[in-house]
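re: ur question from the group chat, yeah i did fold both. here u go
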Amino acid sequence: MSKRKIAREIYTDVLVVGGGGAASRAALSAKEAGADVRMAVKSKWLKSGSTATAFSELLSIAAAIGHGDERDHPEIHYADTMESGVGFIDPDLVWGLAHEAPERIYDLIALGLEFDKQPNGKLVQGMSDFATYPRTCRVNGVTARHILNILAKRIQELELPVDEDMMIFEVLTDGNNQVTGALGWHRETNEMVLYRTPAVIFACGGSHGIYKYGAGTPDMTGDGYAMAYKLGLPLINMEFVQIGPAALFPSITLLSGPVWKTNPVLTNGKGEPVFDGILPEGVTVEEVYKEKVFPFSVSNVSFYLDTSIQRESENNPTPRGAVWYRKGPGTDELIEAKMPKTKRVLKSKGIELDRDRFEIGLISQCNNGGVQIRNMNGETEVAGLYVAGETAGGLRGPDRPGGNSLAEGQVFGHRAGAASAQYALRQAEKPNPYPQAAAKLDGYQDWLRKSADGTRSIQEAADSVRALMHRNCLVIRSEKRLSEAWDVLCSLETKLFNGEFEIDDSRFVQAVELHHMLVSAKLIVLSALERKESRSCHYREDFPEKNDKDWTKSIRVQQKDGQMTTEFYVWPTRASRQG
């Protein structure tokens, strides 16, 4: 593989990597700021990723506009978010999120998005976890998809190019640590593409696809995390992964908080109730269900639901390695009141709640960690590289308040898009990525030559990583489980670069994707090994207690001298920064 292998060259002011809500907002804002913009989407736009496929009974976007309760305002949104993550999140970023989210809601309305409304014309706003007042806005249960579609409509009107099936796998930088371009691989034609661009935005989601089961689509393999790590950028809070229950077959359907208020019956592969002998004295199944929201948490008795699902899936599994779900007797009215949308979605997939039992298990839904950004514009230590959405870190710690995820995508997508456009338009000369591209391609050529006699299967290795993370780094974690995972991941990475895998041009992108999976998995596992306590979505079976005295601090992971290293990070206060 050499420069002659580059099939196409494309120049653009701003390259947006990703196609979800944050990426689409970033692309639109960069275009509106006067830049030439291009989107590179790893699969099919509007059909892949989290935003395009997200669903739950409560899916919504948070903004303190006061339609649900006039007492709500951005300062309270800020305080609520900080209360959920103080010591783990950047106060300046949270302040900006709370104060700019209302403006982004009005942007969406101006684009034509019709949020659910009250009879008086104000928006319907619902309560969510960690909220003082109702502040989440929704659109008929599929809010994320409606946001994406309305942004896409405007992007298409502006004829902004979208390169589908394009996996960006390398960002090129010069000796001044400035972006000069990016390398992409078209997954349908197996062609290499060189993007000449001074500005790149990572808004390519999380790493749900490194688990056996994940929300979104399987192509979410942590590409943004891995590329940032290769550039030497720090990642933060990577141990905090939101995991929770879902119907697994024929496709994943997330089971959010309202579903559990209907008191379903869960049994293992032997037909035994999963809670038998598990709940401590004085705790009832009804209490567990009452406390349950989607993401797993050690903070209340809902802890027993997720951990029981994992243990029974391991010890007494159903035929496909899960547990059985059946509706509780006499709950028809509850189901219609609490989970009508979920019932309809399940029916569309061939599951009738009235008569069927079906298999449920745990899925990865959201990474609370990500690439640490420096400010509201999503800037990083690499000049011209910006990060937004789930790829960005610093806004989500052990917990993530309901509705904040979609708000983050709109607020920081807009900020990164506008800032990247301004940066690109200030550059006096077009970037010259050829020296960096040639060096990178020579390295990949050596890798391909070394792999000419490889016999191991890339697909089998990727499947083994997903199974390993599902077994060893789900909701039940321990030194033994995590150490085993770490050793296997490191061994696979060594074998990958020692030429033991069968790699040629047609398998090149799969090999790079496997490496990204390994890097992303290692970031999570190493952080989870380091955090020797239990907190919110991180449960260490061998350290089951929360330890505020020693562990109210973030773990930052970074590449130094070719090694993955960790350090503790204490966030500055807003007052200290202002001072």
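okk and heres the other one u asked abt
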Amino acid sequence: MIRKLICLLSLFFVFSLGNIFAQQKEVLIYHPIQTDNSGNIVPWFNPDPAIAYDHDLHIIWNFWFNMRRDPNGLPYYMNHQVFNPNMDDPRGIGGDQFMMAMSSWQLYYAYTGDENVKNNLYFLAEYYLTHGLSPANCKWPDIPFPYNTLIYSGIYDGDMRSGKGVAQPDKAGSFGLELVHAYKIKNEPLFLDAAIKIANTLAANVKTGTATHSPLPFKVNVFTGKTALLQDDEIIKSKDTACYTSNLTPTLQLFFDLIQLKKGNLTAYKTGASKILTWLKKYPIQNNRWGPFFEDVGAWSQTQINGMTCARYMMEHPQYFPEWKTQVKSIINWAHTSFNNDKWKKYGVIVTNEQSIYPVPGESHTSRQGADELLYGSLTGDTSYYNNALRQLNWATYAVDFDGKNCFPFDEPWLTDGYGDYVRHYLRAMATYPYLAPAEDHILSSTSAIQQADYKGHFHKYYSVDFTEADSNKVRLYYRTFDTTGNEEIRLKSKPTAVLVNDKPLKETVNDEGYTWTALEKGGGVLWVRRKNGNRVIIE
């Protein structure tokens, strides 16, 4: 009897222990993996992506904004590319660190109306302009250096691998484009002047391009004009692999924006844009040779960011790419073939590796892939990517810790991947499918730069707004844009009682100037505003 009792107790213990182990969940980066009833991954914070994504965006921004300062008095992110909680990381900034942040903050400001976001964008632009440009009298003048070779100097003067005096022209194009955006937000002529100078240098150096040489090199010494060797070791010392990168759509759009503004050397911009556009169509879009992007890699590498950045540009500018539907699908499929990571396939998701030379999944690259595939599906009706695209965005939320720290999986909290090159992908996904945004008042997208965004309860800022104190009681959202013609997509808690443009009520109509409203099952709905003769909008 005793033996039977011991045996039963032993079986009970084993069974209970088995249940405990079965209940334990696999931890992904910071959090145990959460799933739906079908076993597919959902976001860590809340199973509703709208709530989870919004939550993560806010804590990510707060972490960035409140990051500690370095011994030189600058915020930590102005000196380093990786966050370390216990000591200062010995590496300088990432090559696209500031431009990525400016790109995200432009969207996040419209989404929140937080003036700190807009001011941080200005700070990044102004500090970089005054501490990071090549001399006006060199062969590649007035373009930004992508690295601070002396970490605490507060000066950006070279490249992480190739040393002092070396710049990355593709990153200069990105900065120039973000300066145009900043100019449109702030109406600051100095931003526009600097963007013109960057564009002038790039346009003067654009070549026709071949299968092995892109129209602009990946790295160049601004003083000698020579293309810098990409590698810094003995592996392929004789091979110049820094003459090629396909990350040229930001430069292309910089030229187009200045042409539209009728500012700068328009003839040179048209010629440069034509060469870049022709080369993209003839080479990488056809052969998927997208090449390097990252500053810390010392050899040739295929990168997902280059291919998918071009794919999104094609989707957003189909007028330049008549065959964009089939070509973008080819790029998406190439990205899957080249960078798929099925480690979490049992949770219903295939995620995305960073690049060929570092085949590790990244939260930035996975969220980019997801957001871009959602856009492709919404534009074409091809839903084959939808489920995995959404789950990629869900998967990438696990990189965000409770405090807003954002860690590259199996690596470190990179201030490029986890911030500027992360936030924008979720905001873009919300703009594609508004039900991915919470049932609150948020501007999701605009065809123009949002200069001012004031949400209910936040009208009393340090400047005066464009309506009276009495009117403010009725106002839910006020915003002002750069262009007097444009369209906005806005998530609202409920249907507005009135929409006014420059104090003139708009009609609810699907045609011409006006607005349309679509209710969503999850609550609230989406407002589309179409402006033709004004840039000040009041939603009551």
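fwiw on the second one: The CA atoms of residues 95 and 367 lie 20 Å apart. The radius of gyration is 25 Å. idk if thats what u expected
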